[in-house]
Write a structure and sequence with these properties.
Layout: H1 2-6, H2 10-27, H3 31-40, E1 52-55, H4 60-72, E2 77-87, E3 90-92, H5 102-112, E4 116-123, H6 125-131, H7 148-169, E5 174-176, H8 185-194, E6 197-200, E7 205-208, H9 216-226, H10 252-256, H11 259-266, H12 268-277
Parallel strand pairs: 1-2, 1-5, 2-4, 5-7
Antiparallel strand pairs: 2-3, 6-7
Helix pairs in contact: 11-12
């Protein structure tokens, strides 16, 4: 009931109007790009000569962004990166590579809201840890923890490279993202310095964040208002659904967030399957 009431408030309507204006301005090369062009000296993407894409993880923020873009723009492109183990020309998906119901969220959304959707696969964090003989959690239990920083850098680099390669292959020149400033202090500083629209010189892409000033409550109000699918991870007791992220299912960071306990409680069969491969994880779920 709380979210239904929030959806009627002028403040929430203003959030949608502002995000819509940012989306339209960015995709048409409008005034929000012009301001950044003056600040950086970069030429804003001209109208009619560029296409944008949305980075989608099927978490709450990017799902809301994709729906908003679908309702505002005539055509929407979306790129998602999945994790797996290379097997010839195909990929094997290990049970610990991603949260179980994200594919359900993806399939339900795409069935209701058709978009130009593209997926790329990269080597999973677990696969890289095994290759470099290091423990995929912050506690060194295998004697190979010295390589964990190297693995993290390789994994993050492969993730961003996969998205950029797909975008370049399809001649996209603008990236629309679901980052919000209330998610962390680093993002607050990021938006304070660069604004919601900026040119990323390292990636050679224009980037836009229409939801930059939304709160977690705004996100959930939008989800409830439009009855959008979302991962049951956000309904887990003991977690703040406004700040919880659907990142790596298992890893050092998720251990700190208590995700192992959640995984054991909500997906007992999957938990036993994962622990069959990595028995030492049981020590971190009580």
């Amino acid at each position: 009931m709380e979210y239904q009431l929030r959806a009627k408030l002028p403040r929430f309507k203003h959030r949608i109007d502002t995000a819509t204006k940012i989306l339209l301005s960015f995709t048409k090369g409008g005034d929000c790009c012009d301001r950044d062009r003056v600040r950086t000296g970069r030429v804003a993407p001209p109208q009619g000569e560029h296409e944008c894409y949305i980075s989608i993880s099927w978490g709450k923020d990017s799902t809301v962004l994709l729906h908003l873009a679908h309702s505002v723009l005539q055509a929407v492109n979306a790129i998602s990166v999945q994790y797996g183990t290379p097997c010839g020309d195909d990929w094997n998906i290990e049970p610990c590579d991603r949260w179980p119901d994200l594919t359900v969220v993806r399939d339900e959304f795409l069935a209701r809201y058709p978009v130009n959707y593209y997926e790329r696969f990269v080597e999973s964090f677990w696969y890289l840890c095994e290759r470099y003989n290091c423990c995929p959690i912050t506690v060194d239990m295998s004697g190979g923890g010295k390589n964990i920083d190297k693995v993290e850098k390789i994994f993050l680099k492969s993730f961003s490279t996969a998205i950029d390669n797909e975008a370049n292959r399809r001649h996209f020149s603008g990236n629309i993202m679901g980052m919000r400033r209330d998610e962390s202090r680093n993002r607050q500083r990021h938006f304070a310095m660069r604004g919601h629209t900026y040119y990323n010189a390292d990636r050679s892409f224009w980037c836009c964040n229409p939801l930059y000033d939304w709160t977690g409550d705004d996100i959930w109000t939008y989800i409830v208002k439009h009855d959008l699918p979302y991962s049951e991870l956000y309904d887990a007791s003991g977690f703040d659904r406004n700040t919880l992220r659907n990142g790596l299912m298992i890893g050092g960071g998720m251990m700190r967030y208590g995700a192992y306990v959640h995984l054991k409680r909500m997906y007992p069969r999957l938990w036993n399957e994962v622990c069959g491969k990595y028995p030492y994880l049981r020590a971190f779920a009580g």
